[in-house]
Automatic annotation (TrEMBL):
<protein>
    <submittedName>
        <fullName>Aminoacetone oxidase family FAD-binding enzyme</fullName>
    </submittedName>
</protein>
<feature type="domain" description="RsdA/BaiN/AoA(So)-like insert">
    <location>
        <begin position="191"/>
        <end position="335"/>
    </location>
</feature>
<dbReference type="InterPro" id="IPR023166">
    <property type="entry name" value="BaiN-like_dom_sf"/>
</dbReference>
<dbReference type="InterPro" id="IPR055178">
    <property type="entry name" value="RsdA/BaiN/AoA(So)-like_dom"/>
</dbReference>
<keyword id="KW-0274">FAD</keyword>
<dbReference type="InterPro" id="IPR036188">
    <property type="entry name" value="FAD/NAD-bd_sf"/>
</dbReference>
<dbReference type="InterPro" id="IPR004792">
    <property type="entry name" value="BaiN-like"/>
</dbReference>
<dbReference type="Pfam" id="PF22780">
    <property type="entry name" value="HI0933_like_1st"/>
</dbReference>
<dbReference type="InterPro" id="IPR057661">
    <property type="entry name" value="RsdA/BaiN/AoA(So)_Rossmann"/>
</dbReference>
<feature type="domain" description="RsdA/BaiN/AoA(So)-like Rossmann fold-like">
    <location>
        <begin position="7"/>
        <end position="388"/>
    </location>
</feature>
<keyword id="KW-0285">Flavoprotein</keyword>
<dbReference type="Pfam" id="PF03486">
    <property type="entry name" value="HI0933_like"/>
</dbReference>
Length: 390
């Protein structure tokens, strides 16, 4: 099999890999990017509903889950959302800010892929798609990367094949397997930013949406955002956010009326509309949901409902307890949590501390961002950190 020699071989032509490749190549390295897919950046193309939520201006270490919550600090500080935004502006990509600092393309996510490819071209980096990576081993000159096409030799290898979510787009555990083969520890992985399955899901509620405040446990953050009922349970931004924090068997609390004091409001409704039936108490909820939550009160007028029952209903709305049986899995998850253990990586360079020349970036690493552009920012920041160091 013929040999080709590079300074840096990047495994994975996704968000992090392309960013790392461009950074390394523009610093003068001879760079090859390998990917098994038919085109680069496939997750970027489908992200943000096709408009790519490419960063979040409010990104900060607390917007990430990781066994080491300080790990992201250095990379995020050295390549910030404003640094990526400068590139977006340089390529005349028009963008808009949605809620909470979330930046989206006005036109298409493809513009972000085109930006990354142009940046790679500017450094004359080579991109080779539809390549099966068979093995990565140590070599006298660094590493040998065996593929179905050729063997490549490089002094540095950057693991950037992402996480396990959306297998139909080519997700695989390659980076985790290679890391493990070099003795790197792996934090157990699970689907994150995923819809939740409820044991008692009511399919008649599917499609009902509202703003809620959701949280898991006392020490984890709460999220006020949209929720939508599905045939299997619940989804929507607030639910996806708490799914990243949920452990097996854990319950979550959802306030279905986060903008009011439910007890005061329901008691006031009783006095305002004594002849109405129970769903009228829940006029702040979508009507299908109001009917479902008040069904147990029966067909009585509000005047005949004891305050005790109204207070109990208010509590069940303000502290709706859910005990999901799980998530809808990697097929529906936006990201994977867990991955390459940050204890084995330098937070400055993303290099595996025990294997000089081996780097890991992006979603393959045990760093999982909140919904809202934080995951791409991590891909850019970790990519630049590794690309410059490699
Ligand atoms: P990424 O998955 O981008 O790239 C990995 C690359 O490695 C792919 O090109 C893949 O083909 C390749 N690869 C995998 N296995 C391989 C193998 N065995 N051999 C060779 N190549 C291999 N985030 C955000 O911040 N804003 C958003 O709007 C969204 N929206 C969104 C929507 C949907 C539907 C999903 C699924 C995800 C998002 N995300 C997001 C998350 C975001 O897409 C994700 O965090 C980044 O793409 C991760 O970048 P990476 O480069 O690490 O992996």
């Amino acid at each position: 099999m013929s040999l080709e020699i590079y300074d840096v071989v990047v495994l994975g032509a996704g968000a992090a890999g392309l960013m790392a490749a461009a950074s390394a190549a523009q610093d003068g390295a001879r760079v090859l990017v390998l990917d098994h897919g038919p085109e680069p950046g496939r997750k970027i193309l489908i992200s943000g509903g096709g408009r790519c939520n490419f960063t979040n201006l409010e990104t900060a270490p607390q917007c990430f889950l990781s066994q080491n919550k300080h790990f992201v600090r250095s990379a995020l500080a050295r390549f910030t959302p404003h640094d990526f935004l400068k590139k977006v502006d340089q390529y005349h990509i028009r963008w808009h800010e949605k809620a909470k600092g979330q930046l989206f393309c006005d036109q298409s996510a493809k513009q972000i892929v085109d930006l990354l490819i142009s940046e790679c071209r500017a450094g004359q980096c080579k991109l080779q798609l539809q390549t099966t990576i068979k093995n990565v081993q140590r070599h006298a000159r660094g590493f040998s990367i065996q593929t179905n096409i050729k063997e490549y030799i490089a002094r540095a290898v950057i693991l950037a094949t992402g996480g396990l979510s959306i297998p139909k787009l080519g997700a695989s555990d390659l980076s985790l397997r290679i890391a493990r083969s070099f003795g790197v520890r792996i934090v157990p992985t699970a689907p994150a930013l995923a819809p939740l399955i409820l044991p008692d899901a009511d399919p008649s509620l599917a499609g009902v949406s509202l703003i809620v405040e959701a949280k898991v446990g006392k020490k984890k953050p709460s999220f006020r955002d949209g929720m939508v009922f599905t045939h299997k349970g619940i989804s929507g931004p607030a639910v996806l956010q708490i799914s990243s924090y949920m452990e097996k068997g854990e319950t979550a609390q959802i306030n279905l009326l986060p903008d009011m004091n439910a007890e005061q409001h329901l008691l006031a409704m009783k006095h305002a509309r004594p002849k109405a039936s129970p769903p009228a108490l829940l006029d702040g909820l979508p009507s299908r949901l109001a009917k479902a939550f008040s069904a147990a009160l029966g067909d009585v007028t509000l005047a005949n409902l004891p305050d005790k029952k109204i207070k109990a209903l208010a509590a069940s709305i303000a502290h709706w307890q859910i005990a999901p049986v799980g998530t809808e899995g990697y097929a529906k998850a936006e990201v994977m949590r867990g991955g390459i253990d940050t204890r084995d990586l330098s937070s400055q360079t993303m290099e595996v501390m025990s294997v000089p020349g081996l780097y890991a970036i992006g979603e393959a690493v045990d760093v999982t961002g909140w919904l809202g552009g934080h995951n791409f920012q991590w891909a850019w920041s970790s990519g630049v950190a590794a690309g410059k160091a490699a």
